[in-house]
Structure to design on (468 residues):
């Protein structure tokens, strides 16, 4: 199949970017979206041009490195990561628009690569536990209700790709922050810092210039890991509880 | 976060007011006496503990404060969202589908429309400074005069505004509950359903009065 690509090209974080159109020929339907970009980049490199920069690592849908906005939707038309999106989701002759995540908290470094350091700083603010880990405890030493364990695990599958921010009409990072808060808040090891964690993480989130959540739900609709929207409500509940208790250490 | 809580709490106050307001409006089907007496009783509420119209003024002050708080947090979140996006997308598309986004996309401009409507509505039926069909001391007559078929444009404006309120509530009630921490995975659909139900009940409840006058069911 033959594809027309409109790709955001930007030399570096200070440069003005623009959309550039490329023709990509002989694309196979079994190629992943990133492999299609590889084909384009081989062509560009052979022609002596600068290849399109994009983030990627595992290409198995579990690392969270890749991610671009394809035709206006984060990670494109399937609910998965960009590396797990295949060209069979498109038709021969399609024109596909590819843009980087757009958020002030995710500045563009080059082309489709953005700096997601703001997510790291949210984690540093409180996304951890202080319990000594040591060797793995006996599985039955610390009984946890099945429902809580499941909820924590569902939230823990967040790979921090940033699609939630990219898709949010307010460019809010609340689903990411909420996933971390819910993940640790459901487990006994997360209790000692639970109140302080949610306050610190939300403060950091706001300091990073993410927008505010208005419960629209675009984030959960594009999340490749299916992080449920109710984690945000859990975060709100924990935050209101923490502020009411005043116990923030 | 403080902004969102302010938005949610003031929103809940306004929804409770709307429910009470709709209840009062439906008195119109009890005839002129029932409607006018209800209106009169509102002014006697709390007497003799409170002065005449005292309770009403307390409610009005709370409502005004709620509207101001609601609008303030909306403007603040709006400007934050604009700044947070920075560069706009060349292509935007909803992953939820355009129909799911209709209510959420009209929240901000819809809110502006509702404020303008409320100003008109108070000038029309409360202070009666705008009096299509003639001013009157009877609230019932103001209503009946204002929505006669020849003032179809007044009715049309009311209908559009009430629909705007309905859409606003469709997302607003759900959003307020989620912000206050009420959402759980299992509750998400029921909360959305409840939000839609309250929005529809209020929309229909508010449309019944004016439309009944226009179509001659209430005279």
């Amino acid at each position: 199949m033959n594809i027309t690509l409109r790709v955001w090209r930007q030399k570096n974080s200070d440069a003005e970017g623009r959309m550039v159109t490329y023709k990509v020929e002989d694309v196979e339907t079994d190629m992943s979206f990133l492999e299609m970009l590889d084909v384009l980049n081989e062509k560009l490199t052979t022609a002596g041009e600068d290849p399109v920069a994009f983030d990627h690592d595992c290409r198995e849908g579990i690392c969270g490195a890749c991610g671009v906005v394809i035709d206006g939707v984060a990670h494109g038309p399937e609910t998965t990561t960009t590396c797990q999106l295949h060209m069979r989701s498109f038709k021969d002759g399609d024109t596909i628009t590819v843009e980087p995540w757009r958020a002030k908290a995710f500045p563009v470094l080059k082309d489709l690569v953005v700096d997601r350091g703001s997510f790291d700083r949210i984690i540093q603010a409180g996304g951890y536990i202080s319990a000594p880990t040591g060797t793995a405890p006996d599985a039955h030493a610390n009984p946890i209700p099945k429902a809580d364990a499941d909820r924590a695990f569902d939230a823990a599958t967040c790979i921090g790709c940033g699609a939630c921010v990219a898709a949010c009409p307010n460019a809010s990072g609340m689903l990411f922050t909420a996933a971390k808060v819910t993940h640790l808040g459901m487990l006994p090891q997360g209790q000692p810092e639970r109140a302080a964690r949610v306050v610190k993480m939300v403060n950091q989130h706001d300091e990073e210039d993410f927008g505010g959540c208005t419960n629209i739900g675009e984030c959960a609709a594009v999340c490749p890991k299916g992080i449920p929207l109710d984690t945000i409500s859990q975060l709100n509940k924990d935050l209101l509880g923490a502020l009411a208790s005043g116990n923030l250490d | 976060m403080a902004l969102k809580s302010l938005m949610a709490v003031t929103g809940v106050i306004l929804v409770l007011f709307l429910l009470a307001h709709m209840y009062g409006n439906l008195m119109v089907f009890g005839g002129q006496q029932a409607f006018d007496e209800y209106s009169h009783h509102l002014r006697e509420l709390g007497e003799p503990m409170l002065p005449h119209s005292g309770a009403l003024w307390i409610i009005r002050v709370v409502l005004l404060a709620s509207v101001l708080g609601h609008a303030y947090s909306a403007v603040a979140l709006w400007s934050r969202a604009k700044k947070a996006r920075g560069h706009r997308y060349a292509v935007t598309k909803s992953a939820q589908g355009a129909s799911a986004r209709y209510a959420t996309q009209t929240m901000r401009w819809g809110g502006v429309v509702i404020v303008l409507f409320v100003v008109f509505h108070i000038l029309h039926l409360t202070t009666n400074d705008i009096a299509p069909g003639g001013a009157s001391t009877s609230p019932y007559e103001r209503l009946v005069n204002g929505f006669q078929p020849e003032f179809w444009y007044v009715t049309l404006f009311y209908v559009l505004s009430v629909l705007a309120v309905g859409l606003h509530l469709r997302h607003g009630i759900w959003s307020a509950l989620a912000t206050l921490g009420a959402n759980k995975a299992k509750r998400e659909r029921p909360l959305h359903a409840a939000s839609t139900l309250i929005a529809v009940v209020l929309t229909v409840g508010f449309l019944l009065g004016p439309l009944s006058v226009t179509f001659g069911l209430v005279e």
Remarks:
- The interface with chain A takes residues 1, 3-5, 77, 80-81, 83-96, 100-101, 104-105, 107, 171, 174-175, 178-185, 187-188 of chain B (CB under 8 Å).
